Amino acid sequence: MELxxxxxxxxxxxxxxxxxxxxxxxxxxxxxIVGILAGFGAGTMIxxxxxxxxxxxxxxxxxxDTVLWMLVGVAVFMLGDRLVDKKFGTTGVGGAMGIVVGxxxxxxxxxxxxxxxxxxxTTISLSFLxxxxxxxxxxxxxxxxxxxxxxxSTGRLAVLWIMVVLACGVAAALGFAATVALPDxxxxxxxxxxxxxxxxxxxxxxxxxxxxxxxxxxxxxxVVGFCLAMLGT
Length: 233
Known about the structure:
Blueprint lengths: L1 H25 L4 H27 L5 H26 L4 H28 L5 H24 L4 H28 L6 H27 L1 H16 L2
């Protein structure tokens, strides 16, 4: 029963990716607004890294262990991004898909943390859950709007985001299963991995994506996103 609870929580927390992605199919979002949303999403992610994920990564492990898993997160993102570049190129669809890869590198460890928290009886942080749900909205709208503009159908885009959301649900279930098999399992390493992957994605994909479309407004939107997320912590 708790395994199903973990899967459900992981899926629901990341379901805003699907909802926001479909929104971009039904509503035409101007290019500058897409850039502003991407900047806002970058700000909320930086806040989540600073105030949620980094503290979470240092509760039970040493700093060197945190750094090691951050580097693993970077490697995972770079590998996924390289595969996307080979298939779609580095611009256009490739640029948008790089952000989708970042969503996976971000969402899977976050969801695993939720499963681990259920398995260890830790109280689920509602502020962290809300931050995950809200930060996913601009993170999904930005690449989805670009993909729709380049000819992707609603069905194709829906399948893409459904696969991401389900992968996060499975990650949450595996996080719970890890606490059953390994009673000393915690979410520290998953949080550190997420930090590394997110920082790499922000630098390589989301921030350049935002600036290309919104110019100087991207920076302002990033600060606003950071501040609003910080107020919610």
